[in-house]
Amino acid sequence: MAHVVFVALGSRGDVQPLAVLASAVADVDAVAQVSLVSHSELQKLTEEPEVWSSKVLWRPLAQPCFVHDGRLNADTPDVLDLQGRRRAEWIEAIGRAGDADVLVCNLFAMPPVFHLAERLKIPWICCSPSLIPYSMPETFEQELTENMPDLMEVLKKRDEPGDESLFSWSTVKSWMWPVFTESHAILREEFLGLPPVPGDRAGDGHDHFAPETLKGAQFLLGIPAALIPASVTLPPAAVVCGAWSPAEDRARKQPKALVEFLAQCEEEVAKGQLTGPPFYIGFGSMGAEGLVPDAEKVLKVFLDTAKWMARPVVLMQHTLAQVDPTPRFVFCCSEDVPHGWKPSCAPRCADGSDLCRSALARLFPQCSVVIHHGGIGTVLAAARVGRPQLVVPLAFDQPFWGQTLEDLGVAAVQELEELSVPLVARKLRALLTPSVQRSVEDLAAQLNDESPPIARAVQEIAALAATVEGAGAGGAGREVLRPVHRIELCEDAEGEAEELSVLGRSSGEVQFIFREIAEEHSYGELSKLPGDSIVVDGGMNLGLFSLVLAKRWRGTGQLTVVAFEPAEETYHLALQNLRHHGVPLVAHGAEFGDRDDAVVEGAEFGDAPVVVHCFRLALCDVEREDRLCYFPYLTSSSTLQQHRAAKDLAKERGCFDPRLVQTGSNGLPAMKVSKIADMKADAMS
Question: Which of 217, 263, 408, 440 is 20–30 Å from 59 (CA)?
């Protein structure tokens, strides 16, 4: 029986459908265990019984749903990750899913799942609740053909009739092409120990490919067929299942204040004070992250339009901007209100009869128009209950959904850059016409008539789980990371080559840091350091800096190196490397200060030219504890020369404590070393 691990990244709209699927798969006989890996901020999904089953194990990620600097770039998909912003998320996801027998992902989790499945030699499947929001660059095919002709020949041959391979050129150009980009190569080689290019023959050293390692996956689409235009090209053999939406929670209580507000609105409509039901305004999790430009201005336009049209408003203010004071006939929600809820305590009319008990079955049917950002979750919720939509797209696939709905005659698109009260009012009036209402009702009938979409997806996942011989615990004990091994270097000092070897996981990482120190002199000419100096190594890593320093420095007196490395594994590897080469050291561990039991290892203290004090701590301006992201394979260190421009840009954006980047008179970062000097004096005495 298999352990099926779902990995779902992105916003709530991207993750919730896979949570629904995971809960359904947990009841399959061929499955021993189901886990879901996703962002910790979405843990509230586990508290919603219509979404979550207690049989599913929640595995949170520290990385947030959105990694941004307050701006959106719809032209660069997260799966490409040109800036490396998502790599920490991918690495953490790999660590949380490494015990899987079967992997299931959404589109934004495709990168780590594809590479991990290859590393573990296990099957995987992509269940996407959205269409592919990116397209292959025009030059990609030509560049791949020129640089990797053997690979291209294999991929195109798999497109011939009769070949049932899931990894073909059609697969690559429709949705898998990002795995051949540089950012993915770094993840594969430096973290998982895989060849940098999928299909490459590891250790071969030549541009030959092993086609048998190119393992594709079934692509399941969690979107109703009625919403997919004929012009859209789907991946080969894609299965259109329909939306994986949660069942309505009949036991959930409705917000009492909202019910009372809706009742008041109906009374005011009857009196002629209002012209109709309210507008719903909400911009989802992207809005909650502050990704709506000029949010206060946007909100003012919508509220002014509603006031002009004498319409009430139900506002998800946490997704746009705060309203203070709250205008009359505006109901502000500070957190998400479910699109569906049961009116078990609906207020009663003056005559004692129930107030529209059947009509209050959900929130959206009580609204005249749904104004939102175009997220697929809101699109489906509004379409299913026959409500017209005004879509104000922000990024990603939202412009596509806005245009698709507009083409179906059930919505209008409003660009943020063209917002004005007269324009918005004109579009809202057009959406309230009988012809649009007929269109939205026809679409709702099609969507509600579809066969159970969850059953088809569960069937595909269960069939995949039945093909593996899992241990129930997901193959616990498998090594996901490349194992620690000895890496050979050639240390060239003054024309004399000398062999140097260190323990580490990634030869690429070791070679990179070694070149920085020994060849490019990114940290200065180490041989020219004056005697009796104190050298602060802010990131000891594997101890390479101290190793090179110990071999090259031949001054008078003694150098005291104070080295900091917070990652436990890296710290202990550094100690082993220093001991292996006979460099005197003091292993302080996670304590900073005077120690009666401090012992210098490796040589007589007085005769040693270099002594390294090693601390399993991070260098900081104050004493505190913080979370550590550990990247055992990534070249995450920066230099004074090669990356100066990038560091200056980061400084301008406020990434660094100014006390650590302002330079002193000698051109070096101004740092207090009095405590270190006292520690050295105590040790010498």
Answer: 217
